[in-house]
Amino acid sequence: MKENIRLKTLISISLLIFSLPFLQTCSDKSLKNSPAYKSEFTGLVEDSINTKIVYNAVSKINDTIRNYVEVSKIEKQKIIAKDKIEKEIWLKNSKKEFTHNAYFLGFESYKNFEIRFFADKTFYMMLNFTLIIIFTFIMFLISFLKKFKQIIIMSSLNLVFLFTATILLCFWEQIEDIRQIKYGYYLFVLNSILIIVESRKEYKILKTKT
Prior knowledge:
By secondary structure, this protein is mainly α. It contains eight helices and six strands; from the N terminus they run αβααββββαβαααα. The strands form three sheets. A two-stranded antiparallel ribbon has the order 1-6. Strand 3 and strand 4 form a beta hairpin. Helix 6 packs antiparallel against helix 7 and helix 7 packs antiparallel against helix 8. 18% of the residues are buried.
C-alpha cells in the first residue's frame, strides 16, 4: 500500500482540482454586449403621478399611458453613477455564474439528457471533460495494480482532451480572452505532467525489478 504513494497522492490531487474553477464559458466581451450591460440612461424617468389607464374599446382591455419627464442634470449624473455600479456588480456576478469547475463541465449536461443533445456541438466539448474525470478515477484505481504504463497513456490523453475542449471553445468564440481560463485549469495541467513524470519513474523501477 505504501508503494508509489506519491503517484497515488498526485492522482488524488487531480480529483480535488476538478472542484476548482476551470473555465469561464462566456467572455467579458459577450457579457458587455448584452442588453443588460449596454443599456444607457436617457435622462427620462416615468412620471407616475400623470400615468393614465385608459380603456381600449378594440382590445377590450385597459391600456396604460405612461408619461416621462426629464430629470435635472445633477439627478441624471447620480442615476448614471448608480447605474454604472449596478452594471459592474451584474458583470461580476455574471462572470461568476459562467465560471465552472470540471465536474460541472463534465456532468451537468447529463442531468436532463435527451437524444437531441447529440446534435449539439457543446455536448462534445463537455464529453472531453467527462472522459478526463472518468480516466482520472480509473488511473487512481489502477495505481494500486501498478499499471504505470496505462497511467502514462491515460494522463497524456487527459491533456489531449483538455486542449481539444479548449480549442473547440475558442473556435466557437466562447473563449475570447486568456483570462477566461482559470487557475484550476493550469493546476490540472501541471499536476498531469507531474503524474506522467512520476509514472515514468515508477515504471522504470518496476522494469528493473522484473
